[in-house]
Amino acid sequence: MTNSPEGQSMDPLIEAEVLKFEISKKMVMGKISWIQKQFPIITDIVKDIEMGERIGDKELQETADNLSKIENEISSIYERIIPPTDLGR
Fold it and tell me: What is the pLDDT of residues 37-53, one digit of tens each?
Protein backbone atom coordinates (compact mmCIF):
# COMPACT_ATOMS: atom_id res chain seq x y z
CA MET A 1 0.00 0.00 0.00
CA THR A 2 1.11 3.52 -0.69
CA ASN A 3 0.20 6.74 0.97
CA SER A 4 -2.61 8.86 -0.37
CA PRO A 5 -2.23 12.63 -0.59
CA GLU A 6 -3.78 12.87 2.88
CA GLY A 7 -1.05 10.61 4.28
CA GLN A 8 -3.33 7.59 4.73
CA SER A 9 -2.61 4.21 3.19
CA MET A 10 -4.32 3.59 -0.13
CA ASP A 11 -6.14 0.31 -0.79
CA PRO A 12 -4.18 -1.79 -3.35
CA LEU A 13 -7.27 -2.16 -5.57
CA ILE A 14 -7.83 1.58 -5.61
CA GLU A 15 -4.14 2.11 -6.25
CA ALA A 16 -4.32 -0.28 -9.22
CA GLU A 17 -7.35 1.58 -10.62
CA VAL A 18 -5.58 4.93 -10.24
CA LEU A 19 -2.54 3.52 -12.06
CA LYS A 20 -4.76 2.13 -14.87
CA PHE A 21 -6.42 5.53 -15.17
CA GLU A 22 -3.07 7.35 -15.39
CA ILE A 23 -1.79 4.95 -18.07
CA SER A 24 -5.05 5.26 -20.00
CA LYS A 25 -4.89 9.06 -19.72
CA LYS A 26 -1.35 9.10 -21.14
CA MET A 27 -2.39 6.82 -24.01
CA VAL A 28 -5.37 9.04 -24.83
CA MET A 29 -3.22 12.18 -24.76
CA GLY A 30 -0.72 10.52 -27.09
CA LYS A 31 -3.49 9.59 -29.51
CA ILE A 32 -4.92 13.11 -29.43
CA SER A 33 -1.46 14.53 -30.14
CA TRP A 34 -1.05 12.20 -33.15
CA ILE A 35 -4.50 13.17 -34.47
CA GLN A 36 -3.69 16.87 -34.15
CA LYS A 37 -0.52 16.38 -36.21
CA GLN A 38 -2.55 14.82 -39.05
CA PHE A 39 -4.89 17.77 -39.62
CA PRO A 40 -2.40 20.16 -41.28
CA ILE A 41 -1.36 17.41 -43.70
CA ILE A 42 -4.95 16.58 -44.61
CA THR A 43 -5.89 20.27 -44.81
CA ASP A 44 -3.07 20.89 -47.32
CA ILE A 45 -4.26 18.04 -49.52
CA VAL A 46 -7.88 19.26 -49.39
CA LYS A 47 -6.73 22.78 -50.37
CA ASP A 48 -4.76 21.33 -53.30
CA ILE A 49 -7.84 19.43 -54.47
CA GLU A 50 -10.05 22.53 -54.12
CA MET A 51 -7.56 24.55 -56.20
CA GLY A 52 -7.79 21.95 -58.96
CA GLU A 53 -4.31 20.57 -58.54
CA ARG A 54 -3.77 16.99 -59.61
CA ILE A 55 -3.27 14.75 -56.60
CA GLY A 56 -1.56 11.44 -57.11
CA ASP A 57 -3.29 8.17 -56.29
CA LYS A 58 -0.63 7.37 -53.70
CA GLU A 59 -1.19 10.68 -51.89
CA LEU A 60 -4.97 10.20 -51.94
CA GLN A 61 -4.59 6.65 -50.61
CA GLU A 62 -2.30 7.86 -47.81
CA THR A 63 -4.85 10.54 -46.92
CA ALA A 64 -7.66 7.99 -46.89
CA ASP A 65 -5.55 5.70 -44.71
CA ASN A 66 -4.80 8.55 -42.29
CA LEU A 67 -8.48 9.47 -42.09
CA SER A 68 -9.29 5.84 -41.32
CA LYS A 69 -6.60 5.78 -38.62
CA ILE A 70 -7.96 9.01 -37.15
CA GLU A 71 -11.45 7.50 -37.05
CA ASN A 72 -10.10 4.40 -35.29
CA GLU A 73 -8.12 6.48 -32.79
CA ILE A 74 -11.15 8.65 -31.98
CA SER A 75 -13.24 5.51 -31.51
CA SER A 76 -10.55 4.08 -29.22
CA ILE A 77 -10.45 7.31 -27.19
CA TYR A 78 -14.25 7.34 -26.93
CA GLU A 79 -14.31 3.74 -25.69
CA ARG A 80 -11.68 4.53 -23.04
CA ILE A 81 -13.76 7.45 -21.82
CA ILE A 82 -17.14 5.74 -22.16
CA PRO A 83 -16.68 1.94 -22.13
CA PRO A 84 -19.11 0.00 -24.34
CA THR A 85 -21.99 -1.68 -22.54
CA ASP A 86 -24.14 -4.63 -23.48
CA LEU A 87 -27.02 -2.23 -24.08
CA GLY A 88 -25.08 0.33 -26.07
CA ARG A 89 -23.36 -1.95 -28.59
Answer: 888 888 888 888 888 88
